[in-house]
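Please produce the structure of this protein holding adenosine-2'-5'-diphosphate.
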Amino acid sequence: MAECAVLNTGASMPLVGLDTGSNGALPLDQRKAVISAAVEVGYRHFDTAKIYNSEGFLGEALKEAMEAGLVKREDLFVTSKLWCTDAYPDRVLPALRNSLSALQLDYLDLYLIHWPIRLKEGADRRPKPDELMALDLQGTWRALEACVKQGLVRAIGVSNFSSKKIMELLEFAEIPPAVNQVEMHPQWQQRLLRETCKKANVHVCAWSPLGAPLMSWGTPEILNNPIIKDIASKHGKSPAQVVLRWGLDNGVSVIPKSFNKKRMVENLDVFGWHLTDEDHQRISGIEQKKNFDGSFICSQVSGPYKSPEDLWDGEFGL
Ligand code: A2P
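Below is the modeled complex.
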């Protein structure tokens, strides 16, 4: 049984999951094979989103694994996300049904609002300024709550929300958000957000917990950081394991991406030990730098956010 966080719904969510967000470049059979390998080595928590184009092959691979008796539906934890062009109250249910159909599932374990913004229909991944609109948070949340009541999703939450936005949501939520999924690693420690979410009983899940070393917007600096490397050699672990353990020690779950079976195993093998207080102190001194800060939905010309600072309500680095 995987080590789990207990959500405010009472459900268990495995603390290490596999983010399927960036393997679109692989041929389809290889993408499916990545998921099958992950099930085989013990992953039970899978993260996807409409915008990742991974729901289809993830669903195929999970269906095959269930049919082969490798895993039962109740042992899996599957998250998907509402893309911003569907963040309209009347589009939530159809969008969720499309995700369920692509995933070949009857229900999701968790459904998240992907970003705190609404995009005009037809907008692509790089929206134009006139396609950016403020999110109708209350209307969209009510529609998500209705999906829970219909049994189509077990828990609902948000992604890329600042503390301020979490507090706004909590003011009217009948079903409080179970999770806030944000980029978090030693170069973006999200201290204020973690504190706020802890008090509000909202679990934080860290995406790109390794800092996305190979992505154009990411950085290899975290895994190459001398402090991380030193702590790793002291514990006889890899830098990635130290960075993941740092997240877990801070009470968050982590969803690293990997296409590689050896690294998948390495990323799951982060239990049964802890970083010391001194390790934590050293990591807390690492300089904070934004990575994927959401600038794709910020515009000086129009839309709700002029800059990433605006999007994050001035909380970056806090
Ligand atoms: P690969 O698929 O070749 O394993 P993040 O989850 O922070 O976005 O980072 C994902 C990236 O980190 C992927 O490019 C992945 O490459 C790489 N990666 C995943 N696990 C490890 C690891 N244990 N050590 C080094 N790099 C890793």
